[in-house]
């Protein structure tokens, strides 16, 4: 990979090997969203740069746009061509004079929701997380349900409440009923939690009735973001039988503003953990190069690191999830979002939700400021970050997904 003429801070996660896409506005033009690409401490105004260098009409059309929808829908050959073009603009010294005026300091832009969420599906792919939750919710029984190692379990969530990082999260109200209560009560959740997850954003759609096989993953998935699946555990525990999560999850799901292209993640691909149950053929990835990803995640509560979930430990990969999600012929649309499920590793310090970290409140978490938490309090801020291996020993940054809890209304 050639080096960029853009000055990069040491250990910038936004080097020339990353080039994540987002959508931004400026204070000067708050009503004109534009496609941006992160490089160092700057955001490249991609549409303006395309015009400045005289890019092809195909490249200009998808970058000089108020959203990423056109680029996402265009498919893998266009994604590859556009990425190659942007790489040239940021590395060819002869183009510097044309491109540099379209670099905006990142602190001067407002990052918007990077895509228009179409459908939203959330999975449950960490064996450690599913085992911990089984032990907490169904003590004395087998923690994993009988289907867990045969199919990636998921549910359809609420696409309309997917929000970008830094959107305030209003504490939801609903029905709560502890096992010891005779009847449910109504009020603000007392068990507001996080789920540290990785989100996969679909670009190219598929035809209704035609499954998307394991090998077609990279033709449909545009890129990867970070995701916090906010969860009201008391509402969830009372409502989830027999149809699964509903109002305990649907009030808000936060995503990071940068989508890291799948092409940037070649060096991050790893084999998933050994599976002890043979999958059915449509989920069997043993013959192909599998899609485990070695993301190192960090979860901070009010600035303190409370967990370091390892994404490489996930039992089911995103390619298996996509294959399963479409095996019945359900079609894909640009903007479909599917999330990994809570990322929890085998160690206590690797758990991606407070319900596991505090064992449903039994073991409060002590924070360095002297306070302790079972679940989130009003005013608390949770931030999830991640990095992944890039080419030649570099690290790719995913930025952050952050949210602060505000009081119930
Ligand atoms: Mn979740």
UniProtKB/TrEMBL annotation:
Residues 121-388 form the Fumarylacetoacetase-like C-terminal domain. The keyword Calcium applies. Its EC number is 3.7.1.2. It holds the Pfam family FAA_hydrolase_N. Pathway: Amino-acid degradation; L-phenylalanine degradation; acetoacetate and fumarate from L-phenylalanine: step 6/6. Residues 18-114 form the Fumarylacetoacetase N-terminal domain. InterPro entries: Fumarylacetoacetase, Fumarylacetoacetase-like_C, Fumarylacetoacetase_C_sf, Fumarylacetoacetase_N, Fumarylacetoacetase_N_sf. One of its GO terms (biological process) is L-tyrosine catabolic process. GO terms for molecular function: fumarylacetoacetase activity; metal ion binding. Substrate binds at residues 124, 138, 236, 240, 342. Mg(2+) binds at residues 229, 249, 253. Its cofactor is Mg(2+); Ca(2+). The active site is at residue 129. PANTHER family: FUMARYLACETOACETASE (PTHR43069). This is fumarylacetoacetase.
């Amino acid at each position: 990979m050639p080096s960029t003429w853009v000055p990069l801070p040491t250990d910038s996660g936004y080097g020339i090997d990353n080039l994540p896409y987002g959508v931004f506005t400026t204070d000067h033009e708050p009503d004109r969203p534009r496609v941006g690409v992160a490089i160092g401490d700057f955001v490249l105004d991609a549409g303006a740069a395309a015009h400045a260098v005289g890019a092809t009409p195909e490249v200009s059309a998808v970058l000089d746009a108020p959203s990423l929808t056109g680029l996402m829908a265009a498919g893998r050959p266009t994604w590859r061509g556009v990425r190659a073009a942007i790489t040239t603009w940021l590395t060819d010294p002869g183009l510097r004079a044309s491109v540099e005026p379209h670099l905006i300091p990142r602190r001067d832009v407002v990052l918007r929701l990077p895509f228009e969420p179409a459908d939203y599906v959330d999975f449950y792919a960490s064996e450690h997380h599913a085992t911990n939750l089984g032990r907490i919710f169904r003590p004395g029984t087998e923690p994993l349900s009988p289907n867990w190692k045969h199919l990636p379990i998921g549910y359809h969530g609420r696409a309309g409440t997917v929000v970008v990082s830094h959107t305030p999260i209003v504490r939801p109200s609903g029905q709560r009923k502890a096992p010891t209560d005779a009847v449910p009560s109504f009020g603000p959740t007392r068990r507001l939690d996080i789920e540290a997850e990785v989100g996969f954003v679909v670009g190219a759609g598929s035809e209704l009735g035609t499954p998307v096989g394991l090998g077609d993953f990279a033709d449909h998935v545009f890129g990867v973001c970070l995701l916090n699946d906010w969860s009201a555990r008391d509402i969830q525990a009372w409502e989830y039988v027999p149809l699964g999560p509903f109002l305990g999850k649907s009030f808000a799901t936060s995503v990071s503003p940068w989508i890291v292209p799948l092409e940037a993640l070649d060096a991050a691909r790893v084999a998933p953990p050994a599976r002890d149950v043979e999958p059915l053929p449509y989920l069997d990835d043993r013959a192909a190069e599998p899609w485990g990803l070695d993301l190192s995640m960090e979860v901070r509560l009010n600035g303190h690191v409370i967990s370091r979930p390892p994404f490489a430990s996930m039992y089911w990969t995103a390619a298996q999830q996509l294959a399963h999600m479409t095996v019945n012929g359900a079609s894909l649309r640009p903007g479909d979002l599917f999330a990994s499920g809570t990322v929890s590793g085998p160690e206590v310090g690797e758990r991606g939700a407070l319900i596991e970290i505090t064992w449903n409140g039994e073991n409060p978490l002590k924070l360095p400021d002297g306070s302790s938490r079972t679940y989130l309090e009003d005013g608390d801020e949770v931030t999830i970050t991640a990095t992944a291996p890039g080419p030649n020993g570099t690290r790719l940054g995913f930025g952050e997904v952050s949210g602060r809890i505000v009081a119930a209304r």
